[in-house]
Amino acid sequence: MKKIVFSVVILMALAVVSCKEKPGPDNGGDNGGGNQPDTGAVVASDYVDLGLISKTLWATCNVGASSPEKRGNLYAWGEIAVKDDYKWNTYIDPYDTILPDDIASTQYDVAHVKLGGGCHIPTKEQMEELITSCTWQGGRVNGVTGYNVIGPNGNFIFLPFTGFKQGSSIQYEDYGHYWTSEKYDKNDAYMLDICGAEDKMDNRSRYMGRAVRPVKSK
Q1: Cα separations (Å) of 181 from 5, 68, 99, 132?
Q2: How many CB atoms lie within 10 A of CB 40?
Q3: Helices (H), strands (E): how many in the chain?
Q4: Is the per-residue pLDDT at 10 higher than 80?
Q5: Angle CA(195)–CA(59)–CA(16) in degrees, nearest 5?
Q6: What is the per-residue pLDDT for 200?
């Protein structure tokens, strides 16, 4: 069973873990200061073995983020570029005729397209394993609230609260919303929903912009 411990302890060890990216413009931060521009040259260099049965390795940073506590870019499900306006009429597949039921490792998987090297957006099963097999400890890193997700072997990743983008604005920044690779129905896709002291699988509209935390196999 999953254990949840909420605290405001800063894990200092996390400060030395970073995701590197090739040089490109930066508008001052991905969390709290707006999204980092999508340069198309993001390289998540660090992955963590949490000791999971699936042997899934989890990236230390979101796609588009330069450090673990930053939000990174927010993407509509199945899209690989950021945009100014997130609505059904700006979405790649408003009539559910283009995207497959599972976009992992396809041309519609932003982690796979941007990072390569076997990286992909987490499947529903991988996200569920993260929820049920890890201990979730609330905390703050560099002033950003989120969760330290501690694996069975004691290794951990930090998932910052991200909010989501609808229209032209980011909303509910005290929530964490992370896409999985799998479609729920013609309108929604599965995602991780972190709300206060609760984390769960949920499904929401695919046109909205949400964070992506890459994974790859060991």
Answers
A1: 28, 21, 11, 18
A2: 11
A3: 2, 12
A4: no
A5: 95
A6: 87
The predicted pLDDT at position 45 comes to 53
Please classify residue 23 by burial: count the beta carbons closer than 10 Å to its beta carbon, then call 0-12 exposed, 13-18 middle and 19+ buried: exposed
185 CB neighbour count, 10 Å cutoff = 10
- 93-102 contacts: CB < 8 A, separation 24 or more? 93/206, 94/207, 96/186, 96/187, 99/183, 99/206, 100/183, 101/182, 101/183, 102/181, 102/182, 102/183
Q: Tell me how far apart the alpha carbons of residues 88 and 1 are, in angstroms, rounded to a whole number.
A: 38
Interval 60-109: pLDDT, tens: 999 999 999 999 999 999 999 999 999 999 999 999 999 999 999 999 99
What's the CA gap between 157 and 59, in Å, rounded?
8
> What is the number of residues in the chain?
218
pLDDT for 58 beyond 50: yes
* pLDDT tens, position by position, 11-30: 333 333 334 433 332 322 34
β-sheet bridge partners, residue 160: 146
φ/ψ of residue 13, rounded to 5: -60, -30
pTM: 0.82
Separation of alpha carbons 215 and 44, rounded Å: 10
**Strand arrangement of the beta sheet that strand 135-141 belongs to:** 3-9, 135-141, 144-150, 156-160
Closest Cα partner for 205 from 126, 67, 87, 28?
87
Proportion of the chain above pLDDT 90, given as a percent: 73
Q: Which of 199, 181, 58 is nearest to 122 (CA)?
A: 181
